[in-house]
Amino acid sequence: FLAKSLKLGYPFECNCFLFNTLINGLVHNNQLPQAVKLLDVAVVKLGIRPDIVTYGTMFKGLCKIGDNAGALHQLRQMNSNPSSCKPNLVIYSTLIDSLCKDKLISEALK
Prior knowledge:
single chain; mainly alpha
């Protein structure tokens, strides 16, 4: 829809808010791989810097499908990248909840 609208000349400001909305819709419709690709396009091709909402949505999606390894990897990337926003209480709570549901208590305690 977005690509077609841009080709037709509809004025869209490509910003983090727009991409957060699109990524959230993909996550809610169980299309996490497409959300990851869209995030990559936003960051790499358009230079949009993800915010805490972007990361929170991705964490929600990863945890929803039980990809705790992916969520932990994302957490490590956020913490190691000085230009990235830092995880907040919502992200930690989402990850801890998912780890506990999968009986990975030792990982949750780290």
